Amino acid sequence: MAETIKVLISEEDVNARINELGKKISEDYAGGQVHLICILKGGVFFMCELAKRITVPVSMDFMSVSSYGNGTTSSGVIKINKDLDEPVEGKDVIVVEDIVDSGRTLYHLFGILKERGAKSLKLCALLDKPERRVCDVKVDYIGFEIPDEFVVGYGLDYAQKYRNLPYVGCVK
Ligand code: IMP
Ligand code: MG
């Protein structure tokens, strides 16, 4: 059955917002450098676009995690499907994610990265669904706050489809 996708945030608006985020991160890290950690697969489109707009030196790494949590407990642990290639110790890290929903994945991931000795740790997410939050996660750089709707595009999938849409859409 084919779904209908309705545009929620246009390609122009996404690009304009990523420009602003890149500028802000470049200002905040002026004189330093930033180590971006992309959460696969959803964060990949956003991270590439963001990285191109950051003017301080950038290094990048990739991680794939899945959450074991369910709706009734916040004690779910995450499974690391693909770990980082480089140590984070002593680095100014920004985790780049497509969307923060319950916050469960990032809450646990941040615990792991802190333990590994990142010098600083911030979170940049293209989308935030604050209504759905279960775990206390602070998003330092947010693209857009969105209502509690299932979205696709710009890295986000529905059954592995639609990640390549250049805009963010709702599945109808
Ligand atoms: P959570 O914050 O641990 O609940 O999980 C967030 C992850 O769930 C994201 O990284 C996405 O992969 C996925 N996710 C949450 N909401 C959506 C959505 O609206 N569309 C597609 N994937 C979503
Ligand atoms: Mg994700």
What does this protein structure show overall?
- The strands form two sheets. The protein has a six-stranded mixed beta sheet. It has a three-stranded antiparallel beta sheet with strand order 1-9-8, covered by helices on one side.
- It has one domain: Rossmann fold, CATH 3.40.50.2020.
- Residues 71-75 have low confidence and may be disordered.
- It has three helices and nine strands, in the order E-H-E-H-E-E-E-H-E-E-E-E.
- It has 172 residues and is an alpha/beta fold.
- It has helices spanning 11-28, 44-52, 104-115, and strands at 5-9, 34-40, 58-67, 78-82, 92-100, 120-128, 141-145, 151-152, 168-171.
- The longest helix has 18 residues, at 11-28.
- Helix 1 packs across helix 2 (44-52).
- Bound molecules: inosinic acid and magnesium ion.
- Residues 42, 67, 97-105, 150-152, 156 line the site of inosinic acid (IMP).
- Magnesium ion binds next to strand 5.
Lay out the secondary structure.
Blueprint: E1 5-9, H1 11-28, E2 34-40, H2 44-52, E3 58-67, E4 78-82, E5 92-100, H3 104-115, E6 120-128, E7 141-145, E8 151-152, E9 168-171
Parallel strand pairs: 2-3, 2-5, 5-6, 6-7
Antiparallel strand pairs: 1-9, 3-4, 8-9
Inosinic acid binds at residues 42, 67, 97-105, 150-152, 156.
